[in-house]
Amino acid sequence: MEAVAAGRQDRRPADTIQSVDLNTGDGQQGGGMETKQGVASPISNQVQFHGTGGEYFGIWIVNLLLTVVTFGIYSAWAKVRRLKYFYGQTEVAGARFEYHGKPMAILLGRIVAVLLFAAYSVATNIISIWSLVLIIVIALVLPWLLRNSLRFRMRNSSYRGIRFGFSGGVGRAYETFLFYPIFTFITLYLAAPLFHQRLKRYQHGNAKFGTSPFSFQGTVGQFYKAYAAVFGLVILAFFAMGFGIAMIAPAAGGKPNPAMVATLMGFLILGTIAVSLLVTPLWLSRTQNLIWNNTALGEFQFHCSLKARRLVWIYLGNFVGILLTLGLFIPWAAVRVARYRAESLTLDGAGDVEAFVAEQAGAVAAIGEEVTEIFDFDIAF
Amino acid sequence: MLLARYFDGVSARGHPVSLQRTQTHWLISGEGVERQIPVAQATLAERLGSIPRRLELGGGAYCEVADQERLHQMLLSVGERPANVEWLQRSRAAAVLATLALVGMGIAGYVWVLPLALELSADRLPPTVRTAISTQTLGLLDSQLLQPSTLEPAAQDRIRGGFHRLQSPADAAADVKLLFRSAQIGPNALALPDGTVIVLDALVALANDDEQVLAVVAHELGHVHHQHGIKLMLRNAVLGGVALWWLGDFSALMAGAPAALLHARYSRELETEADDFAAAMLLENSIAPSRLADFLEKMAADRVLSEGSPAGGGTNAQSQWLEYLATHPGSEQRAARLRAM
Question: What are phi and psi of A34, to 5 degrees?
Answer without folding.
Answer: -85, 135
